[in-house]
Amino acid sequence: MLNPDGVYLGNYRCSLMGFDLNRHWANPSPWAHPTLHGVKQLIIEMYNNPKINLEFYIDIHAHSTMMNGFMYGNIFEDEERFQRQAVFPKLLCQNAEDFSYSSTSFNRDAVKAGTGRRFLGGLLNDTSYCYTLEVSFYSYILGGPNSAVPYTEEAYMKLGRNVARTFLDYYRLNSSVERPLAPTPKTRKEKLPLFKCTTQRGQGNSHAGGKPEKRSQAHLKDQSLSTR
Fold first, then answer.
1. Quick check: is 134 catalytic?
2. Where are the beta strands (DSSP E) in the chain?
3. Which of 55, 80, 134, 178 is catalytic?
4. 79-120 residue pLDDT tens
5. In the predicted model, is pLDDT for residue 211 greater than 50?
6. For the chain, N or C: smaller number of CB within 10 Å?
């Protein structure tokens, strides 16, 4: 919880001082944005520690207008990295009935440049994946557009358990894909399987299947990318 004082006063977006904290990751002030400053320093220390492999950063937010759970991800010049980034939300879509891959979006919108997802996506290396997990304040859609199911505390907790289950699936998948194959003449190099989430829930602009814009990683870092 990076905004305890704002939430305590009923302000779900801004801190007590009026800052939207998810727009100040590039240069957080230890005085004005102490929680961001502390977490950013911790992440940088972990990233620079050779004994730690920092693989995921997931910022969790509530969304005031859209339905379901969905994710925001980044766009990279390296298309392989861009495609690998889509694996986790596709697996989550298979595990969670209230998660919408069709509403999941990969972008580099300028207005999101100060978010944790964008900033850390430009800072960390290509083995790290940075997402924002958004979950509706209101409800999720099952079946059709008129079958909205209100979120409850238990439903939010269930989504959290499904996120944990998705990590299990993700690492099981990686271990099976990366396992060395027996050296036989007919053996081919295994490739990461393509996933298709057959459920279409919610609404939103999805760029998951699009190609990344051509923009260098150095430029991403210079822009201090961060997103929500």
1. yes
2. 56-63, 69-73, 105-106, 129-136, 139-141, 148-150
3. 134
4. 998 999 999 999 999 999 999 999 999 998 888 899 999 999
5. no
6. N
